[in-house]
Design brief:
The chain is built from ten helices and five strands; from the N terminus they run βββααααβαβααααα. By secondary structure, the protein is α/β, with parallel strands linked by helices. It has one domain: Ribonuclease H-like superfamily/Ribonuclease H (Nucleotidyltransferase, domain 5), CATH 3.30.420.10. It has a five-stranded mixed beta sheet with strand order 3-2-1-4-5. The protein is globular and about 50 Å long. The mean pLDDT is 89. This is Sporulation inhibitor KapD. InterPro entries: 3-5_Exoribonuclease, ERI-1_3'hExo-like, Ribonucl_H, RNaseH-like_sf, RNaseH_sf. Keywords: Exonuclease, Hydrolase, Nuclease.
């Protein structure tokens, strides 16, 4: 018996340079991960963790301030290798779809895997929900995650730029967009004129 499709809503937070004058070899590293696993429209697992960066282990003031994250929390996090083990455990290549808001999450994950010499763990379908949202509503520019959910008259889950909260918010927007898509895809109800050939009735009773 085949397993149902698995949807992984993923958000990562990254290190960032202090300003534009950062080292030429700088690259963003994942320091927080949030994952929401969904089957049959039901959340079956939530995962949240901090990850210790290796190339640039000391967070900049800008990074700590923007993400409201402490050096201590990151230092106590798991290694990047352990994060890959978690991602591999979902076996996404067999039945999974990864959904993110924007394309940076997967790009940084791929770059971090290359740095550590590890194979990419999410060899499956990937959906950038921000682009789906943009196309669906005909927006010229991409909309930020929390602005998008507010445009639906809702509020984001928890705090913005917390990985698990953003992953949950992405899942909530996905459900709202899918609901709108299904509503628009419904055929229009037939009218009495569609069901009855009125011309035949008119001809029958014509004088």
């Amino acid at each position: 018996m085949s397993l149902p499709p698995l949807f992984l809503f993923i958000d990562f937070e990254f290190t960032m340079p202090e300003n534009r004058h950062y080292p030429k070899n700088f690259f963003p590293e994942i320091i927080e991960a949030g994952i929401v696993a969904v089957e049959k429209d039901q959340i079956i697992q939530q995962f949240s963790t901090y990850i210790k960066p290796k190339a640039f282990p000391i967070l900049t003031d800008r990074c700590r301030s923007f993400l409201n994250i402490s050096q201590k929390k990151v230092d106590e996090g798991i290694s990047f290798f352990e994060l890959i083990d978690v991602l591999n455990s979902f076996k996404a290549e067999e039945r999974g779809t990864v959904i993110t808001w924007g394309n940076m999450d997967m790009r940084v994950l791929k770059n971090n895997c290359d740095y550590h010499g590890l194979p990419f763990p999410l060899a499956c379908k990937q959906v950038d929900l921000s682009m789906e949202y943009k196309k669906f509503f005909g927006d010229q520019n991409q909309t930020g995650l929390w602005k998008a959910v507010q445009e639906y008259g809702k509020e984001g889950t928890g705090k913005h730029h917390r990985a698990l909260d953003d992953a949950l918010t992405t899942y909530n927007i996905f459900r709202l967009v899918e609901k709108d898509k299904s509503y628009l895809a419904r055929p229009k109800p037939t009218t009495i004129g569609d069901r009855i050939d009125l011309s035949k009735i008119m001809n029958k009773y014509a004088l």
